[in-house]
Design goal:
The complex is a heterotrimer of chains A (183), B (400) and C (101). Chain A has 183 residues and is of the alpha/beta class. Chain A is built from 5 helices and 7 strands. Chain A is globular. Chain B has 13 helices and 15 strands. In chain B, helix 3 packs parallel to helix 4 and helix 9 crosses helix 12. Classes of the chains: A alpha/beta (183), B alpha/beta (400), C mainly beta (101).
Chain lengths: 183, 400, 101
């Protein structure tokens, strides 16, 4: 069982990112489960979403407490949320940031960074003020974690994105290439 | 075809595949995406049904009753306060013997305001004369909806049915669901052909009539008989569903009860978590088993007795509470076992109210309490799991 | 044995007509055709309904202009004697007479 937690702000598409990753993993042959942090989501408030994937059918329904990887859509969240909460030792942290992985201090964890904001803006996803980074960050996930192939991610992004399908797919692929691994 | 769907979408696909004539619904969290999806199906031409947006859940059920009385297949969805508002008319649907199907996103009731999962909403409607099914997964959500139509419309039954899926834990969770082909569902359900409740100028009838004391009890006994007959019809429909779709359901499903000292009883989504917890406990040498209750009304008395008779202790995990008594399933199981010469002890565990997560650790805590009782230790009859009692005693005062 | 149907459906249309309520009256409304202007207000207001219309058959008229119009009559098998027609009649053409018991 592999568990992923997404951190974003209401409106940034963290829940959609989790759903698309689940579809990609499912198409690759995994059993999957994706769900939001059950609540009253509001625009701008910190939100979480989760994905479980396993080679066997998934029966447990409890929330995700000890993820194997976390994905941070908005680096400013790290000032208010402990994104490493419960993360398994040696787990992966993927951060949307122009900084290098070594500029973050997460001892015992693997950090990967990608400037998903820049990629989203360049591909005209969302507005310059509020770029939609959720599809780009999935490319970084594919690169950093490696258990879901980038081709499945790109296909799922293209199929699931409500608008700008090609731009979103391109953003995921560009992010895959641009991800910097800190290990 | 397998699709990755949210629980509400699975319910909406099932509703669409049943080809209802009328859907009247009022949106409420966490059920909102059901009417959203249905109106989308209607708008894009995938579903040829009359979608009636109404101003309240009371009106939604009233419109469904009116529609069903004209003789069309009718479906709606709601949750929590919405179901509570429907309460009055639910009796009318069952009394008029209209096989309406109602999808529920099982949610806690206010106050305090809470949008998360428990079973208080549907359990509070248990005496309205509706069949009640509870799903563990999104696949079960879709399948039980289709099954609900078939059972409800059976000539021996003709009772409305509700299908409950846990708020958020299922309604908003995406997972793979095998969505049957339209043709397969058409063959399974057939066209809805009401024999008693329909309008036809050539056959004028009165529906919703008066029932004097001389007749009222006979009508109620009729509903009682229909519910009793439903027990067999449900088994038959489960069989047919398994033949056609390859997925086998039963009123209760057991997991390792044969040699268990302690048997847990669950409903809904926590059943999977419980299975996983029990697998681990079995590895640790603890003889714990599980009964998942899928059909709550009619209550599967005979099956339940058979499944628990060898256990020393039964722990009921009730995601509901009747204040001043205990959990509903606990009370009913205790009553069912009452006349047996030898019976297990039954204890109640109130758990997961208002969306409090039910974890494998919680399941283990319950089972370990049960094992204590099996070893002759005294434990309370009613237990509240994972509650900060100290905090409550500070506000309410300690009971002396 | 009682007659019980699924869902308490009544398959005999208009079966309430067989239930006679005329015996409930204390007072009986009686139409005075010499005053009645054939306005049908009583026919509109009767809640039962127990006031009906039929073709005239030589009833007296208040004036010749209404001679060809339908006349109202009271179905005394169903009239409960509520008196609404008496109260509503604009020309006081309905009298309320005590039932002889």
């Amino acid at each position: 069982m592999y568990e992923v937690r997404f951190h974003g702000r209401g409106g940034q598409g963290a829940v959609t990112a989790a759903n698309i990753l689940a579809v990609a993993a499912f198409n690759q042959g995994y059993h999957v489960q994706a769900f939001p942090n059950f609540g009253v989501e509001r625009r701008g408030a910190p939100v979480e979403a989760y994905v479980r994937m396993d080679s066997a059918p998934i029966e447990i329904r409890e929330q995700v407490y000890t993820p194997d990887a976390v994905v941070v859509l908005d680096p400013s969240l790290m000032e208010v949320v402990d994104v490493a909460r419960g993360l398994k030792e040696g787990g992966v942290i993927i951060i949307n940031s122009a900084k290098k992985p070594e500029e973050f201090n997460f001892p015992g964890y693997k950090v990967a960074t990608v400037d998903a904001t820049e990629i989203a803006v360049r591909n005209r996803l969302g507005s310059r003020e509020a770029p939609i980074v959720n599809t780009a960050i999935l490319g970084a996930y594919a690169r950093a974690v490696g258990n879901v192939d980038i081709e499945y991610v790109v296909t799922a992004v293209r199929n699931e994105a409500p608008v700008k399908k090609e731009e979103n797919a391109k953003a995921a692929r560009e992010a895959y290439e641009a991800t910097v691994l800190g290990w | 075809m397998k699709k990755v769907l949210k629980g509400n979408e699975a319910l909406a696909y099932a509703a669409k595949l049943a080809r209802p004539g009328v859907v009247a619904a009022y949106p409420i969290t966490p059920s909102t995406t059901f009417p959203e999806k249905i109106s989308e199906f209607v708008a894009n031409g995938e579903l040829d049904a009359e979608f009636i947006p109404v101003e309240s859940e009371h009106s939604a059920m009233s419109a469904c009753i009116g529609a069903a009385a004209t003789g069309v297949r009718t479906v709606t969805a709601t949750a929590s306060q919405g179901l509570a508002l429907m309460h009055e008319v639910l009796f009318i649907a069952s009394g008029m013997r209209l096989p309406i199907v109602l999808a529920i996103g099982n949610r806690a009731l206010s106050a305090p305001i809470n949008i998360w999962c428990d079973h208080q909403d549907t359990i509070s409607q248990r005496d309205t004369g509706w069949l009640q099914f509870y799903a563990e997964s999104n696949q079960e959500a879709l399948d039980l909806m289709l099954i609900a139509f078939k059972v409800a419309e059976d000539k021996r039954v003709l009772l409305p049915a509700m299908v409950g899926i846990d708020a958020f834990v299922l309604t908003h969770t995406m997972e793979p669901v095998d969505v049957p082909e339209q043709g397969e569902v058409d063959d399974f359900l057939g066209e809805y052909r009401p024999e008693h409740a329909y309008l036809d100028p050539e056959r004028p009838i009165t529906q919703g009539s008066f029932g004097y004391p001389e007749h009222y009890m006979e009508f109620k006994y009729g509903q009682w008989l229909a519910m009793e007959k439903a027990k067999r019809v449900i088994d038959e429909v489960f069989e047919e569903f398994a033949r056609r779709f390859g997925r086998k359901y039963s009123k209760i499903s057991t997991f390792g009860v044969e040699d268990a000292d302690v048997v847990l009883i669950t409903m809904g989504s926590m059943s999977g978590t419980a299975k996983e917890a029990i697998r681990k406990m079995r590895e640790d040498g603890l003889k714990v088993g599980l009964i998942k209750l899928t059909v709550y009304r009619p209550f599967p008395k005979e099956e339940m007795v058979e499944a628990v008779k060898n256990a020393k202790v039964v722990c009921v995990l009730d995601r509901n509470v009747s204040f001043g008594f205990g959990g509903a399933v606990y009370g009913e199981l205790a009553a069912v076992l009452n006349n047996l010469p030898e019976r297990p002890k039954v204890y109640d565990f109130i758990i997961g109210l208002g969306g409090r997560d039910v974890t494998r650790d919680d399941i283990r805590t319950v089972a370990e309490m049960g094992l204590k009782a099996a070893n002759g230790e005294s434990i309370p009859e009613i237990n509240w799991v994972n509650v900060d009692k100290e905090a409550v005693e500070k506000s309410e005062g300690v009971m002396r | 044995m009682k007659e019980i149907t699924k869902g308490a459906i009544i398959y005999e249309p208009q079966n309430t007509y067989t239930y006679l309520t005329g015996g409930w009256r204390t007072f009986r409304p009686v139409i005075n055709y010499e005053k009645c202007i054939r306005c049908y207000i009583c026919w509109t207001y009767c809640p039962e309904p127990a006031i009906f219309k039929r073709k005239p058959a030589g009833e007296p008229v208040p004036n010749e202009r209404v001679a060809e119009k339908d006349v109202v009559y009271i179905d005394y098998d169903h009239c409960k004697g509520c008196g609404i027609c008496v109260a509503e009649c604009p020309v006081k053409a309905i009298e309320f007479v005590k039932e002889e018991k």
